Amino acid sequence: MSALPLVVILGRPNVGKSTLFNRLVGRREAIVADRPGVTVDRLERACDLGEGVQCQLVDTGGIGAGEREGLAAWIEREAQAALALADLVLFVVDAQAGPVPADEEIAARLRRAQAPVLLVANKAENPALAHAFYALGLGDPVPISALHGHGIAKLRARIRALLPASTPHERTQEEAPAICVIGRPNAGKSTLINAWLGAPRVATSPMPGTTRDAVDVRMDWQGRSLILVDTAGQRRRARIRDEVEWAAHVRTERALARADAAVLLIDAADEDGAAVQDVRLARMAWEAGCALVVALSKIDAVDEEARARARRRLMWRLRAFSVPFAEVSAKTGTGLHELLALALALAEKNRMRVPTGRLNRWLGEVQKAQPHPPIDGRPVRLKYAVQTDVRPPTFRVFANRPAAVRPSYTRHLVRRFHEAFDAVGVPVRFVFTATENPYTGR
Predict the structure, then answer these.
(1) Cβ-contact 211, 230 below 8 angstroms
(2) What is the C-alpha to C-alpha distance for residues 150 and 275, in angstroms, rounded to an integer?
(3) CA distance 52 to 75
(4) Which domains does the chain have, with CATH numbers?
(5) Distance between the two ends of the chain, CA-based, in angstroms?
(6) For 162-194, how does the pLDDT look when each residue is reduced to its tens digit (9 = 90+)?
(7) In whole angstroms, what is the distance from residue 261 CA to residue 282 CA?
(8) What does pTM read for this prediction?
(9) What phi and psi values does residue 386 have, to the nearest 5 degrees?
């Protein structure tokens, strides 16, 4: 199958690139705020352009502001990397502000680029405002309002006309398992992903809040395609005061909802061990249906005694979750291969389907070894089970008294399932229902 053609959105800060990205993909994926520097890493999503044509749309941070240090330099490098791969560039300008020197600087760079460029005049509720941008020498500007949707249909048609003739393309990325990396700020999430990739793909910084969006990065590993999802560091909801940070929290929840597995990263040097927020993150992943592995990060920064103490705290705080544990150091490379292999195996287990015959033999063996205790002197029998879903594996269990099944026995079933099917870390779900009575209604 072919890869989708790459359409890259470029422009200076605050011209509406992320708003346009959201408008084209049809949902609020990129965080939008009225200040520069909100978008740091490249954000990629598949986009349906209509008439059977799709592309991979890329949102980038604002460029051309003249800064060449810190995160501004990272944003410039990310935009340049996207530009080098682009099949088409959407150069977004602010129609209400008119051409400014930063637009002219970006236009000069794009005239030297290999990819075709489509000039998009955003905030052009009055289309006549776009005429001033002919001076940039990039052809006819397309007047739009990304906020209100004006001109978007015409823009889609122009994009379709400029894409390579090999489109439409088949989408392949949804078939790949997605592994989401979560944790509190500065736990080392972006550093871990960069170490797995062997290249600096997502921004890292000692300053909390560097990652804001949930950033997807495609990767080939040992002949397998997978998607790594970097997420923003999560603080307690009560401490979230900023709209951008709140949007990042929501993006993390959405990333978990579409992921197959999650890696919860906890700093080994943190004296709190697994803090309350780490437990909340584990529960968030578990409830979203993500398989889960918990990893101590930065183990190179602590001695063996401190590491053992951190391990004990971790296992105690997260004892309610039946998950595997790992230890890694992105700096030294310790445990990186093993952690990725474990996360990928859990992602595949989260999609497992158990044949009905094998499932019911297991259910019978579990009840024979430890039957459900009688309730009010009457037995509770689990008669038959069928699998109804994956991600996570979900089973409908027919019982004579479904309302009487105790939560403790459900937990017992989950533990026995984990053991029998080598699925520790997978959030298996059992739904109990009454056995259908063939005489009902007669």
Answers:
(1) yes
(2) 47
(3) 32
(4) 6-162 (3.40.50.300), 176-349 (3.40.50.300), 356-434 (3.30.300.20)
(5) 55
(6) 987 644 444 344 468 999 999 888 778 888 888
(7) 11
(8) 0.61
(9) -135, 150
